[in-house]
Amino acid sequence: TAPFSPLGHDTHISTKNATSFALPTTMPIAPFREQLPENLEDPLHEIYHYAVISDSEEGMILVNVDTLADAEPRNNFFERALTWNEDGVLNGAQFVELAGSNAYFATDDEVVIVDLDKPLEPQVHSRVKFNKPRAVAIQFRYIFVTDADGFHVVDITDVKHPVRIKGASVKLADAHRMYLARTFAYVAAGKEGLAIIDIEKVDKPKLYQMFNADGKLNDAYDVKVASTNASLFAYVADGKNGLKVVQLTDPERVPTYYGFSPDVKPKLIAWKKTSGRAMSISKGLDRDRAVDETGHQVSVLGRIGSRPFYKEEMERLYLNDGKLFTVSD
Questions:
Q1: Sign of the four-CA dihedral 240, 242, 247, 248
Q2: Residues 188, 177: contact at Cβ < 8 Å?
Q3: From the CB of residue 181, how many other CB atoms can be counted at a distance below 10 Å?
Q4: How far is CA 120 from the centre of its chain?
Q5: pLDDT tens sequence across 15-36
Q6: Are 117 and 129 contacting, i.e. CB atoms less than 8 angstroms apart?
Q7: For residue range 274-328, what is the model confidence (pLDDT) as tens digits?
Q8: How far apart are the first and last CA of the chain?
Q9: Selection from 226, 268, 217, 272 nearest residue 247 by Cα
Q10: Spatial CB neighbours of 255, under 8 Å, sequence gap ≥ 6
Q11: What phi, psi does 87 have (nearest 5°)?
Q12: Beta bridge partners of residue 322, listed in sequence order
């Protein structure tokens, strides 16, 4: 919905059983904007035209959302640009996450990584088996997956040949969606509340703390983390209980709050009952994000001709003939 007349606005997409959706960025962008040659400016990748919907029956649905950024309130109508589920590979899709031009789907028994370099011509990169996967999150060379067994880590340095890291798991009875913030993963853990997992040593994740606010947080389905001023907060979709706000750091309780990744001290500070079960919560603004995980420019930089490294350029900083640099190298 929007503060415009319905004569010029309808952003609903009718699907059989939509389960989630993802945008390639939370920043305001205009991928259709003309690239002036004199600016020596890289164009935005095609993926930035689209929202991606997961549907447990139809698979993946792409919707061009450019109309919301063209400053014209009379043409805000959405239509499908693509419906795709080749050979049923996305049957049972429950969740989708975008990282650059790669889409990560949690299906009935797999995480399916789909190449959207050409968004209207999808290709499957790879598939990884899991026990009823529920959510996926990405950080640098790794994806983190929650499933019926808990929390797991997969190395995607080579996205076409992902490797589950042996022993890199944390058992959780009811893990759902999660959010990664530097060296911590925050997992909405259903009846157990909020699971905070230390991922500084990514091959050896460990439970930092289970937090349920003395039993008040007991139906958690989703969590997002964001900063306001000098404090860090977790916003939790707590199912039957509505929205919960958990303060993680503040100047009084966490003296190291200005550090890169300070230890957190969760404290329930606010809540709001919702009209139905709170199942999902939107992501805040990613500030100062110049490049995505696949090396495509997101922001226009301040100097003519400036741009972030492409993916191949970034890989030269940490790969040697396709393998990770080691101390011996």
A1: positive
A2: yes
A3: 19
A4: 21
A5: 999 999 999 999 989 999 888 8
A6: no
A7: 999 999 999 999 888 899 999 999 988 889 989 999 999 999 999 998 889 887 7
A8: 56
A9: 268
A10: none
A11: 55, 25
A12: none
Looking up tokens 């009209």, which residue turns up? 275
The residues with which 226 forms a beta bridge, in sequence order, are 233
Structure tokens at 298: 């997101």
**Do 82 and 116 touch, CB atoms closer than 8 A?**
no
Length, in residues, of the chain: 329
Structure tokens given for 280: 């999902």
Q: Nearest 5 degrees, angle CA 120-CA 126-CA 130?
A: 120
Determine the longest span between alpha carbons in the chain, in angstroms: 66
Confidence (pTM): 0.96
Q: What Rg value do the Cα atoms of the chain yield, rounded?
A: 20
Local structure of 312: helix, strand or coil: helix
The answer to whether residues 294 and 100 touch, using CB atoms and an 8 Å cutoff, is yes
Say whether 318 sits in a helix, a strand or coil: coil
- pLDDT tens-digit readout, 175-185: 999 999 999 99
What residues form DSSP beta bridges with 82?
Answer: 62
In the chain, DSSP finds a helix count (H) and a strand count (E) of 1, 24
Using an 8 Å Cβ cutoff, are 110 and 129 in contact?
A: yes
